[in-house]
Amino acid sequence: MMPDPIQTALERLEILGRISDDPSRLVRTFLSPANRVAAETVGAWMEAAGMETSHAADGTIRGILPGTDPTAKPLLLGSHLDTVIDAGKYDGALGIIAALAAIESLPEPPAHPIHLLGFSDEEGVRFHTTYLGSRSVTGPLDAETLATPDASGRSIAEAIEKEGWHEGATTIHYEPRSTCGYVELHIEQGRVLEEAGEPACVVSAISGQARVTVSLDGLADHAGTTPMPLRRDALGGAAACILEAEAIACADPPLVITVGSISIHPGASNCIPGSARFTIDLRHPGDERRLHHLTALEEKFAAIATERGLGFHWKLVQDDPSAPCDPALTDALLEALESVSGSRRSMPSGAGHDAVALSKLGPIAMLFLRCREGLSHHPDEFASPEDIATGIHILTRFLARL
Amino acid sequence: MMPDPIQTALERLEILGRISDDPSRLVRTFLSPANRVAAETVGAWMEAAGMETSHAADGTIRGILPGTDPTAKPLLLGSHLDTVIDAGKYDGALGIIAALAAIESLPEPPAHPIHLLGFSDEEGVRFHTTYLGSRSVTGPLDAETLATPDASGRSIAEAIEKEGWHEGATTIHYEPRSTCGYVELHIEQGRVLEEAGEPACVVSAISGQARVTVSLDGLADHAGTTPMPLRRDALGGAAACILEAEAIACADPPLVITVGSISIHPGASNCIPGSARFTIDLRHPGDERRLHHLTALEEKFAAIATERGLGFHWKLVQDDPSAPCDPALTDALLEALESVSGSRRSMPSGAGHDAVALSKLGPIAMLFLRCREGLSHHPDEFASPEDIATGIHILTRFLARL
Questions:
Q1: For the residues B295-317, what does the mean pLDDT come to?
Q2: What is the distance in angstroms between the Cα of A376 and the nearest Cα belonging to chain B?
Q3: For the whole prediction, is pTM greater than 0.80?
Q4: Are A65 and A103 in contact (CB under 8 A)?
Q5: Is there a single domain that holds both residue B172 and residue B120?
Q6: CA distance B350 to B286
Q7: How far apart are CA B240 and CA A236, in angstroms?
Q8: Of B320, B347, B365, which closes a domain?
Q9: How far is B63 from chain A (nearest CA, A)?
């Protein structure tokens, strides 16, 4: 009797969850020994599922299931093998393992070839980059990226040369329009599905993200001897900005704005804050709305600073466009979702995923699975076996219908 | 020809400003060598002015000018000799030197004896206490205070025993109602006089001060994947509290409320703050209003926390009552102020002074002098020679009329 692909997938998740560079917690980073073992392990599972495997020197693993139509472009599936430090076992790994289980569950060979990719780096822990593995399959990394140093000063280029998986390595690159798309399953990393009581949904777009550093400069005065009208309190100004950002975000869902970090100077309880510095993280699935709100926020903050006699400095440190999911591919995924779970829920992803990098090649689509309390990047990260089975069923149906 | 007392005072300020434990900046702390030299120097000036001097083992210096009325209680004048680290030369020292110049300017001996006190500690730098020197003249320090350790672990009692000025020391203590009051001149340490364009004013009361630590606990969620309605953002709650505190203070002058310190956790730009902790410094010259506002603030904050689904913790860490100035003594000072400067301005002191400790003995009154940009506790602290002369004239007139 054939082993049950879902049971196998759950066991594989446990196995991958124990392949770690640190015996006391889960951590696999770009080119680390554990990341290589994880790729080899996944490669062996791919071969057992009848796929032909290859790997890139940077540690990305690929399995190819031939299609019955020799002219069809391949469909790409995948997610990442690397983790954050002290990670959970679902983020990344589940996407690869669930896709493999779906391939194993197919009643007959697909028309399109299926390429399953286990990317060597999405989290960017070692080099503070993102999508290093998935970006690499869309074309060679540029010289600036390759020169990025890790904490020890070793560049990405040197790391690949000295630590890469060179034996039997091949180049895994795709040209734009050479595939019929990329589909990724991932845990939601949020609480929307849990609140809705639904196991899965499709993703409408991966939100664009702007990051801003804001500084307000007032006057550090004595807390006892400075009457309120004479104050130029930088923290008061920051508080007004924080509430303004909150109000703007609440008024236009799915916009989210977060002030996650703040520091003030001098920071003594008996001293009026002379300066405040805080961060803005603004995400929206629509590029036009993101830019609109970014401009609106800057104008509101400038007005608050002027009104309070504060110096104002706005520094845009990152502004990534959104990656919309492909309507046709997403419709097919939605049909599979509906037939398995009865829901047609769709939502934007506020977190980045390998699909962002893959969107350079062609259409993308994503399936989100419910995770407990929205928790991720934490050892308590959890998706239930039932929800994982649901996710595999949806992917299987999607592949079978393609 | 007699030297001009005002010119002499200005020169003495420069001399005291160079008596420091650190050659690169002004610092004199409780029982430090420089604090002892400063007391000896002031003692010599007192003697030159015809005063009989004595000193306490803790370093407080006193000069006594006999009065013509043998039954009259003494009038106390004074301020502190110690400084903060990297101090200006006016805070404390000016009060002693100006009083001495006023005594020297008296056209004839006063009816009351005048006791001029140079306290060994007001700033509390070494032991994180306040008014150590001035409290000591109102009675022996209690055992708990005497056991307070400095950074090296040495207690106040040990420090006085091992480092005190024991040669020729006497006990300088006053019983309650044994004096006719205490009068102190001090720089304002705020910008009210500068804004008003006036050189001096009297003090109506030294404000009571409450210090509170506030904690708000929410949930540290992912900045990208948590829609606004699902957030329990502790910093959003803190921002609402900060603006509420500001509004309450602005609505009831001379109330002042300051949030001078804030920290949030986890404090990453892509993470919704799960907890926020900030300080409240609330001062008002009226005890009833201070307590009223403290209660109102706690209630408002609790409501904000409830509305936002945040845990709320309010910890009162200090609550000192106000020290009202004596109406009769203050009227006499006001008359002197008006006759010299034409103003009858009075304001509460938001900063603490030795007069708070002396209020235990009897009536107190204070004269504030304008200081540039309200700056104090800083090497750029500055009061103009003209304003210092005005202060000395006011004190002289006050003493002459007593």
A1: 97
A2: 9
A3: yes
A4: yes
A5: yes
A6: 11
A7: 10
A8: B320
A9: 31
